[in-house]
Amino acid sequence: MSKGGGMERRRIWGWWFFDWASQPFSTLLMTFIFPVYYAEIARQHYTAQGMTPEAAGAAAQSLWGYGLGICGIIIAVLAPVLGAIADNTGRRLIWVWIFSAFYMAGSWSLWFLMPDQPHLHLAVLSFGIGLIGMEFATIFTNALLPGLAPHDDIGRVSGSGFAFGYLGGVISLAVVLLFLAENAQTGRTMLGIAPVLGLDPALREGTRAVGPFTALWYLAFMIPFALWVPETPGPRRKLQLGTAMTELWRLLASLRWRRSLAAWLASSMFSRDALNALYAFGGVYAGTVLGWPVFLAGVFGVVSAVSAAVISWIGGRADRRWGPKPVIIICTLVLIGVCILITGMSRQQIMGLPLPEGSHLPDALFFLCGALIGGAGGALQSASRTMMVRHTTPERATEAFGLYALSGKATAFLAPLLIATVTDVTGNQRLGISPLIVMFILALVLLIWVKAKGEAAQ
What we know:
Layout: H1 3-32, H2 34-48, H3 53-89, H4 93-109, H5 120-142, H6 154-179, H7 205-208, H8 210-221, H9 223-228, H10 241-254, H11 259-288, H12 294-322, H13 324-343, E1 349-350, E2 353-354, H14 361-389, H15 397-409, H16 414-426, H17 429-432, H18 435-446
């Protein structure tokens, strides 16, 4: 192998390590461990204030939804602006490190959600800081993708990156379940031991440690990224905010004539918003509707993350052979079916059909939903990243991915707020998920105007 080839392969591996380092935020904090703990503690808190169990679960979900909605607004406003500034100055990595600090600070602060007298608003704020850090760091690392491999190989690189990240998520989840997260009743982890490092199960320190663990994991595994991924080649310029904003406005104005890009941004806006809501509310749903404890949600997470790793890898190969659009369509159809099933399922019935008391069918079906959400969601995100590369150039990639982030976040407040509002109005968490069905259908319809090969096909 040539020296240049070895350096390029090492650069790709370094880029993949960002997915490995950052995935635990989604796996542990957004989906499977912390949201279930939050839902458990919040429900107990609201019940102690005199609410019924169902009303307490709805109140917990509403607070979570409003917090995510506010984060979505912040990300939507700043993402394209920061992308334009980064492209204008020729510097991207500095932004990765700035928002990495947000990621770690927000994650670490989740330690302070105590089981007694919980500061629920502080927990939502801390989670939001970490989420903003992860989202913005991802924008700038995604912008490096066009320069990593030949055009026809981008799909494979993107899919393998997601698969590698999900593998990291599985391993981090296994570590937490085996050594940290305690069962609330027994005080023991899935390994049958007390939480390591002398953590007190009575104070839920094992479960609360998932925040600091996520921050330390990120710090450790960003080292290969720091060593192997250099700054994007090109001239360095002083920040000229006016120039950056002018170029951003020119890009936005050009959407009138770039029908494929405009349709793609609108489609991805709805699909990624709905998918992120599925991730964010899955743990809360499991903890409140099905009454799952944290450790069972963790097992569910392993199933979902393994499915995501495998199907993301397969999806990357399918993307390379047939292109990203067919992958996106199939994954969206699967996610519509999952939402319909979740909306029609409870402990007492499945799609209107009553169940005998104590039936485990809802648990089995939700495990299936987890595998489908993980697999279809991972492949959808990977193929979406490839589709965006087909609509940009390496020189303007950060701006384009900032716009892509805007499309994913312009309505990021919409899904959480719709879920929160419908849950509030109906007092029913299952019905609160129903707006996601409409959002996925809208995403599917908009794909009609998206060129399979991007704007090169126009």
